[in-house]
């Protein structure tokens, strides 16, 4: 092996300087210290039962999850057909130093198990009636069904009006539903890397922020129509621009969640491609057993989106980076320029033959559901049963002209047992990711044109003025009761872009 290239040395020097400055400069501004350029940390894994606490960090006052004495949210690992059991203790301050949409945050909190096909009722994935104030606790017992698609999900807090601040502070974590290797057995012999994208908040004009912008190689090229200062960058597992160990030619299994409340990722690996196995926790093989993978050069992950892919270490890993490309969020959107999210690093690569101990064998046979071609055709030819219209003005954000209130009744009622055609329309000049709790849907048409490779998702991006047609899977008898759908730019959700749905 040859010595480090000049490029590598420069990068190392710059990152070392950035780390030094980021760690030692003391400023009144809000930009907090964040590790820069270290090896990607592996968060602890947890199986049930366990206790998770919501706290305020002693030095920054920001919200945080405390698990086993560390402010590192654990990865919840669960087998299909078993339970997630946890006590959620709200130990946040009753007197917040943070500001939410309606004034000082009250620090109410709860949990949402994003993407799981579980009951929306207490004590499961209930974000409507389950809420804790500081000093209170919630007990969750979530029955993950036998036919839950195996893949990457995530948990985050969901208190209407305070979701944005808590997610921005990093109150989120990954959930792995085991058994994805049933769809692509090759995964069993690969090293697994779980990448949780969260935010470091920037303060315009603040020296520490500028150092972080510099360290992330933020592109100065014009990106889309959004104006205004850049307000955040991605960290991965808490580190800005970490190094991910991978050897040239080594295959690894990367599971990536965008846990930011409003930053988009359009991920690409220099000189490489991703062999996608799942989007939003849904293995491609779940609906298409004969086509369980798809090769992509880049993958757009809106806030809440996930991708799981086999990645091959490029020829010279030390010269390659994982980047987020420019995302045009529209004239009313937030800046989302290209920058480097991580560097690949051969020197800290794992041995090529390592078999991951993390992916436990699930069940031997893959679960698969195929929507018949006839049924698909019939739904596609039908008028939508329900339309979601996203609008906004200077007073707030709306679905079908209505701002969400916790005391609302359902905006729509659906009968369990059907696949249903929904239309989602973005009547604004910025992007909005549509999400519905407990349900995956097939996005089959864009502005009236059929999509070539339609995907089953639980969160889908809508460009400004775009219309998408979806087939909603409302067939699951477990999903019964009151739930919600909303925009996953959480400031928009906090300001009203959410509505209730009753499954009965
Ligand atoms: Cu939105």
Automatic annotation (TrEMBL):
- So which domain of life are we looking at? Bacteria
In the record, which residues are listed under signal peptide? Answer: 1-28
Tell me where in this chain the Plastocyanin-like domain is found. 62-178, 222-283, 391-501
Q: Which InterPro entries match?
A: Cu-oxidase-like_N, Cu-oxidase_2nd, Cu-oxidase_C, Cu-oxidase_fam, Cu_oxidase_Cu_BS, Cupredoxin
Q: Name one GO biological process term.
A: cell division
Residue ranges crossing the lipid bilayer per the database entry: none
Q: Which Gene3D superfamilies does the record associate with it?
A: Cupredoxins - blue copper proteins
GO terms assigned for molecular function? copper ion binding; oxidoreductase activity
Q: Does the keyword Cell membrane apply?
A: no
Sorted alphabetically, which Pfam families does this protein's record hold?
A: Cu-oxidase, Cu-oxidase_2, Cu-oxidase_3
Q: Which UniProt keywords apply?
A: Capsid protein, Cell cycle, Cell division, Metal-binding, Oxidoreductase, Signal, Virion
Q: Does the keyword Metal-binding apply?
A: yes
Q: List the protein's name.
A: Multicopper oxidase with three cupredoxin domains (Includes cell division protein FtsP and spore coat protein CotA)
């Amino acid at each position: 092996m040859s010595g480090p290239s000049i490029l590598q040395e420069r990068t190392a020097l710059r990152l070392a300087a950035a780390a030094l400055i980021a760690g030692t400069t003391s400023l009144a501004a809000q930009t907090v210290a964040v590790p820069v350029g270290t090896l990607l940390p592996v968060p602890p894994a947890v199986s049930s039962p366990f206790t998770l606490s919501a706290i305020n960090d002693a030095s920054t006052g920001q919200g945080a999850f405390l698990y086993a004495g560390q402010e590192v949210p654990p990865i919840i690992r669960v087998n299909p057909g078993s339970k997630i059991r946890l006590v959620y203790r709200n130990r946040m301050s009753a007197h917040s130093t943070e500001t939410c949409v309606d004034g000082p945050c009250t620090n109410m909190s709860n949990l949402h198990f994003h993407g799981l096909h579980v009951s929306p009722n207490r004590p499961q994935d209930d974000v409507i009636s389950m809420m804790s104030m500081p000093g209170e606790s919630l007990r969750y017992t979530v029955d993950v069904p036998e036919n839950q698609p195996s893949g990457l999900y995530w948990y985050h807090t969901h208190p209407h009006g305070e979701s944005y601040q808590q997610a921005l502070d990093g109150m989120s974590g990954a959930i792995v539903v085991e058994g994805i290797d049933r769809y692509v057995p090759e995964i069993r012999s690969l090293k697994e890397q779980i990448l949780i994208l969260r935010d470091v908040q920037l303060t315009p004009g603040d020296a520490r922020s500028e150092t972080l912008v510099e360290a992330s190689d933020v592109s100065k090229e014009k990106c889309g129509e959004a104006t205004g200062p850049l307000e955040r960058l991605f960290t991965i597992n808490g580190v800005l621009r970490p190094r991910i160990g991978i050897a040239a030619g080594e295959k690894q299994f990367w599971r990536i969640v965008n846990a930011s409340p409003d930053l988009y990722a359009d991920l690409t690996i220099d000189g490489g491609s991703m062999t996608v196995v799942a989007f939003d926790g849904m293995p491609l093989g779940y609906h298409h057993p004969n086509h369980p993978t798809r090769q992509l050069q880049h993958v757009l992950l809106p806030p809440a989106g996930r991708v799981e892919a086999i990645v091959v270490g490029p020829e010279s890993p030390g010269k390659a980076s994982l980047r987020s490309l420019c995302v045009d969020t529209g004239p009313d959107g937030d800046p989302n320029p290209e920058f480097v999210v991580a560097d690949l690093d051969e020197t800290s690569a794992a041995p090529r033959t390592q078999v991951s101990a993390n992916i436990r064998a699930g069940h031997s046979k893959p679960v698969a559901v195929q929507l018949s071609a006839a049924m698909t055709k019939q739904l596609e030819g039908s008028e939508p049963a329900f339309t979601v219209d996203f609008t906004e003005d200077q007073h707030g954000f709306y679905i079908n002209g209505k701002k969400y209130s916790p005391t609302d009744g359902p905006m729509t009622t659906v009968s369990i047992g059907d696949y249903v055609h929904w239309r989602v329309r973005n009547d604004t000049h910025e992007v909005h990711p549509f999400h519905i709790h407990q349900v995956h849907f097939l996005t089959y048409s864009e502005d009236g044109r059929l999509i070539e490779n339609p995907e089953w998702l639980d969160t889908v991006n809508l460009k400004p003025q775009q219309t998408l047609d979806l087939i909603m899977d409302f067939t699951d008898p477990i999903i019964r009761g009151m739930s919600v759908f909303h925009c996953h730019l959480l400031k928009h959700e906090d300001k009203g872009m959410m509505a209730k749905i009753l499954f009965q």
